[in-house]
Design goal:
The protein is of the alpha+beta class. The chain has one helix spanning 47-63, and strands spanning 11-22, 25-37, 43-44. It is elongated. The protein binds zinc ion.
C-alpha cells in the first residue's frame, strides 16, 4: 500500500519490534508482522495484530 506519512513510499511486508511501557515495567515484542514504508520507515501494524499485542501485554502484566 502507499504510505500515508510521506506519500511517496510504498510499504512492504516486514517485521518490527514494539516496546510497551506501563508503570515500572517494559514489555518488548519482537518479530511483529508489519507493513513498513521503504521511504520513511513508517511501520503499519494491522488492527488484528495490534489487538493480539494488547492481549498479550495484559496477560504479561497480570503475571507480574
Ligand atoms: Zn513513508
Amino acid at each position: 500500500m502507499k504510505c500515508v506519512i510521506c506519500r511517496n513510499g510504498i510499504t512492504e511486508e516486514g517485521y518490527t519490534s514494539l516496546v510497551l511501557e506501563r508503570d515500572q515495567t517494559t514489555l518488548v515484542f519482537k518479530s511483529i508482522p508489519a507493513q513498513i514504508c521503504h521511504n520513511c520507515g513508517e511501520e503499519y501494524i494491522s488492527s488484528e495484530v495490534n489487538k493480539e499485542l494488547l492481549n498479550s501485554a495484559n496477560r504479561g502484566y497480570n503475571l507480574l
